[in-house]
Amino acid sequence: MSELLVSLALLTVLTAVALPAYQAQQRQARRIDAQSALQQLQLEQARWRGTQSSHATDLNSLGWTSDLSPGGHYRLSIEEAHSEGYTLIATPIGPQARDNACAPMRLQLRHMATVVVSSGNELASDPGRCWRQ
To answer: Structure pTM?
Structure first.
């Protein structure tokens, strides 16, 4: 009986240590969903701008029928768009919403030439290194 209690105690300790690490790793892996969606939107904005006088202001114009990323972990939006650039936003939803360090993830085009990726509260940088692979 005591061996069973020791085994249960060890299992509980291992679970308490391993589960948060596993969840953090999953959140990090799901960031790829946001990155790929924002990069796809970037390509579609370039295509749109090739025939229009300004960048698209909504996802529907770019052919997106949903505001969700392909994996469904992020809600996508175009925060601002004009002739010189745009800001694309990926806000985590569901279990991914616990990814506080990287909420939201952004891709910006500035002055038709500079691409800036950022995350969290920083509009021009990625302090959490959320865009790294």
So the answer is: 0.83
